[in-house]
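dude i think i finally got it to work??
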Amino acid sequence: MDFVNIAMVAVVSALAAFLTNQGIAVFNDGLRPIMPEFVEGRMTRKELAATAFAMGFGLVIGFGIPFSLTATILLVHCIFLGTDIIGTATPNGKMGGMIAAAVGALYGVGIKLGLEAIVKAFEMLPVNFMASLGEVGKPVVIAFAVFPALAVAYQYGVKKGLINLVISLLARQLIVRFGVFTIGGAKIVLNPEGTALLVGMIILLLFALNEKAPKEESVDLVALFSDRVARIRKNLPFLMVMGALVAAATSMKIMAGDPISLNLIKEGNLNDAAFAALARGIGFVPLVASTAIATGVYGPVGMTFVFAAALFIGNPIIAAVAGAIIIGLEVLLLGAIAKGLDKYPGIRKAGDNIRTAMSQLLEVALLVGGMNAANAIAPGIGFFLVAGLYILNEIAGKPVVRMAVGPIAAIITGILVNIMAVIGLFQIPA
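look at this
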């Protein structure tokens, strides 16, 4: 199974690097709008590679790896931000594509084996803090259902956001009280957080669908960028294979698409993880669709619905088929999606607000989780270090993204405690 997992990561990384090299798909949403400058000859590959490195390297080190360490599941940012850099840095042409694929495969294997080696090394230390790192994700598991209410508050005001929050809370508590019952001898257990998320998303979408744009304001993006849309459709077979591989790997619990679903997978809450991934996908539809149409470059995971499908299905083979079909439908329906977003601007705005609400929720939940984990590793010292490192990061201009500070600070706490234990400044718990 280890060999299969490593091989899967290698193949995913190889294809992702190839797609980036050929200008077919890029993971970093900030890099995608720049790709036409290179594809259409207004930017050199050296300039593109420098841009990709500047945008992605810090996120791999400061975001992807810490989350992957806390759950021993690869956050896809570890892979795809790295393959963005590899794909842009390797030469042009078919040979360049082959080189990118080879380097990408080696990178994927290195990430997988490297993280496993780090985990094993941590387990051999005098103070084994790997179990305590699990505390990082616990607030996320409970708090993730709040973000639809926050998105409503951003878009429609605090009062409507509060209404959403109260209704979601009531739905949660009803499931806590009455969510376990028996049908035909089978015990059914409904999940409170999943129910709260579903109710909150329904309320958000009802508000958003109520907001329509005047006909005179509509712009046919697909007609405006018809050549670039045709370019995406021409490369559809590559994208469908990528969708199949990502879905299969996700169903095997090798990787996760975001920190929320990653922590839910770690806790064994696969249905909740699927709902969280589905909600995230809804949030990414406007961004991915509009940047794809305008640039002619897609994302290796599309609108991210492949993650939700894989988690709902669970079987790698069926998930792979579903992943390929989902990416295919996304690309073929780009025109219809663009028209729908144009007709219902509330949905487009909701996408932006969902992403903002998710990010802010993660910042708070992961800071609390980081504090809890660090304090579990070293009572007293943990709170001291996480609080201090968080404020120092703010003063320094946020060189580490806020949501990664908690997990990184917890890992630093574990390392420092081991150093102190060696020199006699920390007593190892019995």
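Strands lie at 74-75, 180-183, 186-189, 255-256.
im so relieved honestly
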